[in-house]
User: Fold this.
Amino acid sequence: MAEYMQKTKVSNNIDKNIARFGEIFSECSDIKMQEMCIGSHGNIKCHLSYIEVAISNTTLRDTAIGKALAFLEKQNVVEMKKQLDGNGMGIADITWYEFVEDAALGLLTGDAILFVDGYDKAIKIADEGYPGMGIQEPDSEKVVRGSKEGFADSVKINTSLLRKRIRSTKLCVKEKKLGVRSHTLVNLVYMKDLVRRPLLEEIERRLEQYEIDGVLDSGIIEQLSEEKWYSPFPQFATTQRPDKAATAILEGRIVLFSDNSPTALILPTDFNSFLQTSDDYYNRFEIASFARILRYIAVFFAMTLPGLYIAVTNFHTQILPTTLLLAFQEARFGVAFPAALEVILMEIAFEMLREAGVRLPGTMGNTIGIVGGLIIGQAAVDANLVSPIIVIVVAFTALCSFAIPSEEFAFAFRLLKFFFIALCAWEGYFGFLIGIMMVLIHLSKLKSFGLNYLTPFVGPEQYKGDGKKDAIVRFPLRLLKKRPIYAREEEKIKLKKR
Amino acid sequence: MFLDNQRISFRQVYRLYLFSLVGISTLVIPGKIAEKNGVYGVISILLGGALAFLYLFYLKRVAKNMETDLITYLDRREGGGNLLKRGALFYLAGSAVMTAGYVAFVFSKLVQKSLTAEENYLLILALIVLVGGYAVVGGIESRARVYEVMFWFVLIPMFLLLLISLKGINFIYFDFHRAPDYGKMLQDGYLCFLPFQTLFFALLLPKYVKKDYNRLFFSIGLALFCGVGILIAFFLILVGTFGAEALSKMEFPAVTFLNNVQFTGGFFKRLDAIMMGIWFFTLFALMNMNIHYGGILLKESVKKGGGKRYLLGILAVVYLLAAGLSYVEPMQEFFFNFFLFFGVPMYVLLPGIFLAMGRKRA
Assistant:
């Protein structure tokens, strides 16, 4: 799948280079190629190529390229070669290429390529680069307290946001290119002294194991690198928040950025880390612990509440107090559908509303939520299509799933909810128990880069860190002295008194 | 990267064993020992517990002498082809599968009786066996993790249940004036020992834990101690609630008892369905333990590759046995007598025989 099997060396004869370059970009009208004559006598032919928009004509004069051209304009042939070899123009970001095809790939990173007649190398000079969204507050992962910065589309901006937070020489950024056609830049960011080397080698191995046309988002890397592809549970944590990524790095984890994606992947991960948020550490431990407990309860109900409702009302009415049972019966009076079908219909309707809300532009998305939730819900109850209890159950389940901080993690429970509805509609509480058992068995088998998914609740490794102190309850920061399991054994201490 | 060695911690051993020991004993034993001796059945439980501790001590000695797990020891001493060894392992596999079948039968009956009365027994059984198979595929590590997580979710409700039910005890039922039948007491003591036969699998565990026999057997001993304690508590509460005579006529007295328990100021009217989770998870643990070790023993006795096909075969046999136990009533008696007169004595004798055989070869 390699794009160019044979490479052409950059020639001293600029015409040959221009011809080859023209051949490579023969049907690319967005690539601008400009020939010019420079040098003290205006007799040295030059060829500048760049991507429209990525290098702006209007700013050419003020940019590194413009200044380089102005500098070269004053040189004679001999001087010019010397200056080009020694970067006499004083440009910070410059790369020399020996092959035309490499120079072409260099151009596709958003920089300009300069050929000079009589000079056997192509020069890449950085400029504005591709347009991007810039730094914005992330839509998801909102926090009350803490930084409002979010990752951008550019991998370079994202790594710099981490560097801004961890100003250590031990913060390493390893660069890779993935996608034989997209040549997407991927960065692995980690602390040199904290990361487990085998973990780093493993992620590098997994990144190499597929040859793919294009990597357009970190989600593609995530799916190709997962151990159990069929599991609904994510085996990478994701974040759009630099502070969360920085915390992960300081715990000894690895953060992976893919160019053109504002979502960073964090590895390894476990069940507990999906229920942690950045501001858990910025707030007092009582508040953070309370929020954590709420999230764990939310996880349980997001998955099981509709199923439990069916099990209790259809199979085990004896457990309910008589008054409540009568209230349920009264509420269902006149409803044509059986309870299970009622729940399924309402859940599907709700999921559709949510999907519509996400896809619709800005304010319309909010509107559809109100229209769907209030008006359609009320209309369905009035028309005796569903009972008011079902609306409460579905609404509470939805609330619970929104309370889970990680969207992809919440997705797993939204899917499992239907599995539980089916099991409970079929076998009642027995179905519920079977479902719980199956989910637990699945989770117990699941691993993220060799780490038990149920860490820190299971396994001998939990004794080695402060994992359990930062799980359902978040202990006071002064007691969280050890790093979690992710860091190297010999680098466990993260807090000590002077 | 991280530990991934199909090994489990001693804490996991304790939790796995506690789950395995508590389920069937609290369901089946109280009704069987109350008939003749009433509250003096406690002495039978203590006797059974003492026997179990002696058995565990004996197993510890054997394991220490073997210096490894039973299968590795036999491989080293006997080689793969010894017919006697293979026969013994095949018998042990069969015995484990029979136990699994019996537990699956009790499990399915319990579910049918208390949770889904209208559902077909065979369907319930199929679900239980299939999920059991799914659990066993993950290996011992996966099962250990499940029970490590479930531990408090099962034990806290169980203790709450025991605590709440104390107020329902009628001390008149503790008839201390009744003359105990000592012969029956001894018989019942042996009966109480029956559910603890799974202790035998401790000889297969050294492969899955750190090589520290004292800690391994301490963990199992602690589980046994807690298991006996819970059984005594259940028995006394059941006798105090129903009286010995009524208790002896119940199929699953613990379940009948759950129908009557109520929390003061509690929201739920009845807790039987919710509390059934306790027995669900404990019986599941015992069944899976037997399927797991049955598979290992069978594989070793046949000494042919086949991976998970063994498991499929075992699951099919477990299913057929449990189905048979439900539809062919004499089979229940046969199973009971088999374990009483042959199964358990063999579990006691075989470790010593294996050890003696190994020494002779050496």
